[in-house]
Design brief:
52% of the residues lie in helices and 13% in strands. The chain is of the alpha/beta class.
Length: 273
């Protein structure tokens, strides 16, 4: 069984790659950093191999999918994990920064999903897991461009599932996993960044928490899974009443700033879900 994970050179992607190897998959570990990807492949074993992949390049995603089939015999799982975040009001970001976030977080997921579907349709089906964010379900002041890119992931993923089913294709699933803030290198340098406060307003997750959720949807495909579930319910209420939600978001920012200060002092995130 072949699997591919994007952005798997560190953090959550590396843990998901290990999870897939533990489940018996031969994992294609991809990242823009070949040395990091190679190190992960060597650690997880099971025939895992690595290559450079810039998810913004559709042709490169096609080639990565083809290489996975060539090396493993099939492409059963593709996890779109690669992502970046730029914080602060959109008007304070450069056009280049905004474009980069959307190209990696949104276009990259589109490219990977389409490449995976092409190979899965040729085989016996498969499962695409798109790592989105709670920011894809609700407004996030300070992370507007990031939130917009993740909202697009949800819209694209759910629409593509609809297209698959309307085309009579039942053997390919797409699941979106939407975690709260994860204590990974993406957030390690955001403790002094007020724009990132809402990422700290819940209970910070470990990579193990999110990898466990990925494992659950691999066993039982689910269109949208919030991690933790209670935060998913919370943000859906906020999203259902946007005017009221704007007032609640101010409280969330204050709680997030308090958590950032605590983390600067202790360096230890609170226990996760």
């Amino acid at each position: 069984m072949g699997a591919l994970v994007t952005g798997a050179g560190r953090g959550l992607g590396a843990r998901i790659a290990a999870l897939l190897a533990e489940r018996g998959h031969v994992v294609h570990v991809t990242d823009v950093d070949l040395a990091a990807a190679t190190g992960v492949a060597e650690r997880i074993g099971g025939g895992a191999f690595a290559s450079v992949l810039d998810v913004r390049d559709a042709a490169a995603c096609d080639e990565a999918a083809a290489l996975t089939v060539e090396r493993t015999g099939s492409l059963d799982v593709w996890v779109n994990n690669a992502g970046i975040i730029v914080t602060g009001p959109a008007w304070e970001q450069t056009p280049e920064q905004r474009r980069l976030v959307v190209e990696v977080n949104t276009i990259g997921v589109m490219n990977g999903t389409v490449s995976a579907i092409g190979r899965m349709r040729e085989g016996s089906g498969g499962h695409v897991v798109n790592v989105a964010s709670l920011a894809g379900l609700v407004a996030v002041p300070g992370e507007g461009v990031y939130a917009g890119s993740k909202h697009a992931v949800l819209g694209f993923s759910l629409s593509t599932v609809g297209d698959l089913r309307l085309a009579g294709i039942r053997g390919i699933d797409i699941s979106c996993v939407c975690p709260d803030g994860i204590w990974t290198p993406m957030l390690h340098d955001k403790l002094d960044d007020p724009g990132a406060a809402l990422s700290f307003s819940g209970v910070l997750l470990s990579v193990e928490d999110v990898a466990t959720a990925v494992g659950r949807v691999l066993d039982r495909p689910r269109l949208v899974t919030a991690v933790p579930r209670w935060r998913g319910a919370q943000v859906r209420v906020v999203d259902a009443f946007p005017r009221l939600g704007q007032h609640g978001l101010a409280l969330g920012v204050r709680l997030g700033r308090r958590a950032q200060r605590r983390l600067r002092r202790t360096g230890v995130p609170p226990s996760s879900c």
